[in-house]
Amino acid sequence: MANKGPLSKGKSKSKSAKPKDFAKIKNKVGKGKKAATNATHTDYKVKKVQMPSQNALGEKGEEVTHRKNTTTFRERSGLGLLELLAHMGHHSSKVRRDAYHGLHELCKEHDGVLRANLARILDATATASMDPTAEVRVAFRIFQAWLIETIPQDAVSAFAATLALQVRSALSHVSAEVREDGLKLLELYLSRLGSEQVLSQAESARVVDTLCHMNSHAESVLPCLHRLLQPPPSRLGSTPASQPWKRLRLDLPQVSLQDVVDGKLRGVTGGGAPSQAIEASGPSLDSPVWAFCLRAWLQAGDLPRGTIAANSGKALQELSVARPGWVKLRAAAVLERALERTRFCASSSLSSFSLQPSAAQVASLSGVVRRGEWPLQVEAGSSLRVLADSVNLRMARAICLLAAGGAPPDVSSLHLGRLARAALGVLEQVGLNAARSEANSDANSASAVAAAAAAGIAMSAELDSEVRLCASGGQGVGAVSYALRSLDLLWSCVATGQESGNGMFASEDVTRLAEATMRIASGGGDEEAPISAAIVLAVPLTASLLGLRPCASSAQPPPAVGAGWPEALAAVGEPCLAELLEKARPGTVASWARTWPKLLWYLGSSDPALSSFLLSLILELAKRATQPGGLHGRLLSSTLPLLVPFLAGPPG
User: Fold this and answer.
1) Where is this chain compositionally biased, Basic residues type (predicted)?
2) CB-side exposure of 565: number of CA atoms within 13 Å?
């Protein structure tokens, strides 16, 4: 037997040393389980730290807000300017809204923050007008309204490019709600700053073009167009009256390179005279402004013709039945302002933008008259009567501006004549009613002169204000001034047609025009009526019709007659129409001339400027009374005896 001693015993011992699968290893007594190499220790230790002050809050200083932190809704010591500007780009709309509220609070409590960081604030808020959340846009608009009222306008106008970017971005946004808020923002800027301080010349044309395509927001677009098309702040007095042609737009052709390339223009000659202007090779193009206003007029609906009881709890603007009238009033005001801009502005910021209607658009307006949709007719006792009269006066003056040179050259004389006769009918009715009511309300000559001067101030103030009512109850001074300015335009048409032999008015139309002018100029048609504002306002127009050239003799119109200054007659050279007036309505010119000594007697020393103006008119009448038996000589003979009470005083 082989010897298996130590060798075999060692082999079996190595086999038993191998660990078995899934065998539980028993640890020795008193030793714990070893931790794994990838174990995570969750135990921690806490120690108190003493912080007498925080450097971050100390750097903010006192210029912090006292609002809650909207991210954690816990009270903090305040937010500084940099934090508020950073929150304006936060993903939460509530944080962005509270950031504008906080910025408003911070700038209101600390004046130095706004003055030192105006550029940074405006740059940070440049995209707020396009914010997708309505409450953020409202908060931004409230802050902008406060900012415009707080800082000087010169400081705001330095950032006009940023403001214009906000407006253009909002108006061209895909969201209808953002576009509607953009209109409110534009109206805010235009009402507080003016179009010239917010928009440049090129930007004005682009914004007007954008507005004319927003057909579903007519009620909001029309006030913006009315402000964008405002003429220069003051036409009267800014140019010497001896040079009236400087108040009118120079008839120089505006040529674009694209029109020349496309062959749309022909007949270009040198010299620069108006008769040598560029002739259009086709029909006139439609004006976007006129297209928008005519569409808004037709879609507005009709005013109720019956009696509408006055509601003491609501203003006229708040009545739902008055909405069509307000839309038509604003549309007529925009058309009037567009034609005024093309007529009276020497240089237009909308030079590349057509404000003159096409022949087709004039025909559409003529169709409105032919269908009886204008003038508006309401009963005398209706609360909408003042609104209807204001619409009629506005549209009448727009039509008079068309007849006095605002119409395109290819317009039909039939359409233009129909419009002019309809406007004359409005002036006959509304102007006469306003003159009568205004004459009854004046207590004495002093109040009449004051009311006439107030009409001139109101006319100047309206250049940059919202559309207002022309007539209001017993105070018809505004309606009288509107009627006189419209009559001035129609008389300029008569003077131009008399010179060219191709007038739009027949002899019976001239008689109606003379009758309407006489009734307004005499305070309702009664020559013995007391002195009223209508009589005072009509003095320059009647003097110009008599050929006394008040615009050429007076460098600055007196304030009491500024609202009735005959600019249209001054533009055509103030021709003498006395013979035509005497033939159309005998005795009219004599009644006008006899009014001036009467005014001098009643005025006394209350208004030296107006008294001096009246005396200059009588002196000019004496210079023209050179032919014995002539019309001016007869007028002077009937006027001089009435001067005795003014020169010698009352008897005794």
Assistant:
1) 25-34
2) 29
Query: Model confidence over 28-76: pLDDT tens digits?
Result: 777 777 777 888 888 888 888 876 655 554 455 455 555 444 443 223 4
- Convert 394-428 into a string of H (helix), E (strand) and C (coil): HHHHHHHHHHHHHCCCCCCHHHHHHHHHHHHHHHH
Gap between the terminal Cα atoms of the chain: 183
Contact 551, 565 (CB under 8 A): yes
Distance separating alpha carbons of residues 644 and 143, to the nearest angstrom: 65
Rounded-to-integer distance, Cα 157 and Cα 586, Å: 57
Q: Do the Cβ atoms of 303 and 387 come closer than 8 Å?
A: yes
At 599 the three-state DSSP class reads helix
State yes or no: pLDDT of 453 exceeds 70: no
Please give the C-alpha separations between residue 233 and each of 194, 219, 266, 462, in angstroms, as whole numbers.
10, 25, 36, 9
Q: Please indicate whether residue 475 or residue 52 has the higher confidence score (pLDDT).
A: 52
DSSP string, 442-461: --SHHHHHHHHHHHHHHHHH
Among the listed residues 435, 228, 488, the one whose alpha carbon sits nearest the alpha carbon of residue 348: 228
Q: Which domains does the chain have, with CATH numbers?
A: 61-199 (1.25.10), 283-304+317-648 (no CATH)
Angle subtended at Cα 162 by Cα 159 and Cα 168, rounded to the nearest 5 degrees? 140
Q: What torsion do the CA atoms of 306, 312, 313, 317 make, to the nearest 10 degrees?
A: 60
Cis, peptide link before residue 650, omega less than 30° from 0:
no
pLDDT in tens, 132-145: 999 999 999 999 99
Query: For the chain, percent helix, then strand, then coil, each to nearest 5?
Result: 60, 0, 40
